[in-house]
Amino acid sequence: MECTPPSACSPKNAERNRTSSPRAFRSGMAVTMVSAGVIASLSVKHIGKRWSGFGTFARGPPYVSAGLILIFAACMAYTGWSGLVPIGAV
Prior knowledge:
By secondary structure, the protein is an all-alpha fold. Helix content is 77%, strand content 0%. The chain has helices at residues 11-50, 54-58, 61-84.
């Protein structure tokens, strides 16, 4: 493998590239998540002012989500159990 320019392949540059990339990713991820949280907070506040029943509506989705997670977990447990029974592991 040829390097153009040759200084791009020096060990010093390789180390810098290896360590700066994860930092940039973490910083970008942090900014993205904080921005999404701020936008969600402001939008909920805005909707709450315009729709009086929003609080009642907003309490439902976490229960639906929990129910879906439990159904998925039960399916995964069944799949695992049915895979272990034929080989006599249970």
